[in-house]
Structure formats: C-alpha cells, structure tokens
C-alpha cells in the first residue's frame, strides 16, 4: 500500500472519530473539570483537554517531529466553548498536515520526551496510528467520567444508553 492510501485512511479515520469526540467534549460542563474518579486518576478537565489536544499531536508529529512535555504549550482550560474551538482548530491542523505530508517525512522518526528525557521514538507513519489510538483511548476514558457524572454519553460506534439512535 502506498503512503497516500495510508494517509487517506488516517484522514477518514479522524473524520469518523471527530463527530463522536466533539459530542463528548461539548457535554463536559466546567463544573465537572475538577472531578476525579480515583485519587490516581487525572481530573476530568485535564482529560477533556487531552482529548481536544491529541489531534494537534498528529500535526506536530508530521511537521515538528517531536514533543517535549516540558515545553509543549498547553491550552489554558477555561470553558466549553473555548475547548471546542481549540479542538476544531486541532482537527483542521491534523487533516491539513496529513493532506500535505510527503513520503520522505513519513520515513523519519517522531520522538516524545519529557524535559529532554527520551520516552519514545518511532517512525512517523507508526506514530500517526498510535496518536489516533491514543486519542480514541482517552475519549473512552472520558465517556466513563461522563457516566459517573450523569452526563449523557453519545452514541459512538453504536447506540448508547443515552442515545438509542445515531
């Protein structure tokens, strides 16, 4: 399979996951941002921000080739409208970067660091799939947090207890 076919697959996957992800994010009220289901868990606001941010990682993977958590600019969490605008911007960045990626870029590595310490390195093509999986994983966590806060969980791959139809 050529790189353009793989990239088109990733673009379609992002588009398919976008609708349900946005529905989740738009249902997270600011009043739940501090909620944690367990002391070791992240706060709901941080988790929502992570779900909104990960599409930007796709663009960063392609364009910048690395993320260092110590210097990665974190969006200031304020309210749902701002979070949704940030998310929409990141979806656009991700799809734009994918539409313009070259085969040569895909052959290079992506690295993830924390304060300069290497956490992960892999070819960009592999990293892109892992970014999408990471995004979907955290959205799944977010739906559990939503359920624990009695927030309506949208249908994602089929009906939910709150939405019987698509």
From TrEMBL:
It comes from the Bacteria. Keywords: Metal-binding. The keyword Transport does not apply. Belongs to the DinB family. Gene3D superfamilies: dinb family like domain. InterPro entries: DinB (IPR007837), DinB/YfiT-like (IPR034660). This is DinB family protein. It comes from Terrimonas ginsenosidimutans.
């Amino acid at each position: 399979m050529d790189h353009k076919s793989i990239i088109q697959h990733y673009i379609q996957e992002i588009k398919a996951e976008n609708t349900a992800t946005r529905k989740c994010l738009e249902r997270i009220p600011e009043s739940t941002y501090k909620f944690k289901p367990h002391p070791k868990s992240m706060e709901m606001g941080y988790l929502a921000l992570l779900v909104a941010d990960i599409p930007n990682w796709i663009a960063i993977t392609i364009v910048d080739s690395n993320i260092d958590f110590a210097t990665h600019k974190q969006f200031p969490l304020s309210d749902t409208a701002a979070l949704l605008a940030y998310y929409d911007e990141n979806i656009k960045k991700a799809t734009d970067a994918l539409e313009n990626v070259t085969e040569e870029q895909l052959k290079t590595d992506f690295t993830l660091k924390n304060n300069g310490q290497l956490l992960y390195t892999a070819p960009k093509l592999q990293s892109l799939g892992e970014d999408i999986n990471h995004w979907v994983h955290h959205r799944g966590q977010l739906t559990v947090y939503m359920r624990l806060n009695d927030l309506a969980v949208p249908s994602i791959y089929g009906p939910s207890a709150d939405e019987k139809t698509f």
